[in-house]
Specification:
160 residues, alpha+beta, 60s Ribosomal Protein L30, Chain: A, five-stranded mixed β-sheet, 10 strands, globular
Length: 160
């Protein structure tokens, strides 16, 4: 079964028949975490780097921010049977564009990716693969049965 991860949002599954998918990763990031031993995975669609921008909003929607959403992803994966030290993490998105075709002067995509890298380093979790930057939106899928992460961009597809 396919489960769509909203914007912002998070889904975790231990069902090998499930695929988690998120769309419209522009400056946002998709963060996939998968434990190959437990067969548990989760997909997070995060919008902004830091909850310091809006702590009350982060309390209501922790998936909106890297610093609250990624730890929640790890906790939910572990609650479903994963172990943090076995998590394989892959990231996609972080494009640097505006809807009018110009570049993002606030560099939200770059800041999101920098925040994820810093958080993973602090948590002792390795970033195994990435497809970030550029100027095109992406779609990201996580197949729970295989742990395979697929990124679709510009009519093509890439396995991370």
């Amino acid at each position: 079964m396919t489960h769509v991860v909203g914007v912002p949002g998070l889904k975790v599954s231990a069902n090998p028949g499930d695929t988690l998918i998120t769309y419209a990763l522009g400056s946002c990031l998709g963060v996939a975490a998968y434990d190959p031993v437990a067969g548990v995975g989760g997909l997070l669609h995060v919008m902004l780097p830091s909850s310091a921008l809006a702590p009350e909003k982060a309390g209501r929607e922790p998936c909106m921010f890297v610093d609250t959403g990624v730890p929640l992803l790890f906790r939910e994966c572990c609650r479903a049977g994963a172990r943090k030290e076995r998590l394989v993490v892959k990231v996609a998105g972080g494009a640097g564009f505006r809807e009018d075709g110009g570049t993002d002067p606030f560099q939200v995509g770059k800041r999101n990716f920098a925040a994820v890298r810093q958080l993973l380093r602090r948590e002792g979790v390795l970033l195994c693969a990435q497809d970030v930057g550029g100027a095109q939106p992406r779609t990201m899928l996580l197949e729970i049965g295989t742990g395979r992460v697929i990124v679709r961009v510009g009519g093509g597809e890439r396995i991370l």
